Amino acid sequence: MDALIPVLKSHPGLAVLVCSLLFRVVHQLLQRLPVPKVVKQNDLHSWKWRNLSVSMVHSLLTGAWALTCVVVWPETLNNIHSYHTPLSYLLVCVSTGYFVQDAGDIILTGHARGSWEFLVHHALVIWCFLYSLYTQLYVAGAVVALFVEVNSVTLHLRLLLKLAGAQSSYMYFINKFANLFTYVTFRLCTQFYLTWYIVQNYSWLDHGGYFLASMIVMNIMILIYFYRLLRADFFWSKKSSVGQNNNSRKFLSD
Q: How does 116-126 read in b/e, with b if 16+ C-beta sit within 10 Å?
């Protein structure tokens, strides 16, 4: 690790590219796993299943990794501007690589038009994370931001169950409450904490205006998705459910 991190910091762009290629390898390996028959019957659903499977791997890995970084190094939470550890820097490299790979998958498979809002989200995340990697500032902020991946696990599971036609299953019922809890705890609270930190320290933060604007855009997005989630799972109507199934790739991209 001591020998690897200086190399990553010297060539962050190359490090992100390598991580992106590794997630592409994961994408290929996951295609060997069995897929529900109902998913195989639809090309769009098959792509969604593959895409969400890679996203699930990313969320499981980076969500647990981010929480571990904060538990082991609590200063990560208090000094999001300038504090970081070798493991937190590596985490941001890995996660940036995933977002590059996922954006590429959306564009190259011809799903950009239907997933434009997720591409906007990815562009904001990639830019912010690359800034952190090249300047070695806000690395801790990027780690804290990855708390949202804990919620992404339940979001992805929700959509995988829907693709498999298991909306009436007990697992879906339990997951929708877990999803609601993690959305509020790990997504909304995380985003609002980061926004509060930037506002409180705006006068001295590097490029505070850009990061605040980025956070405001993402806050608006997650509130809209939260409304959609509540409407779909807790205030269900046949018309809104059909519309959401036809128009959404994911409720939120990680």
A: ebbbebbebbb
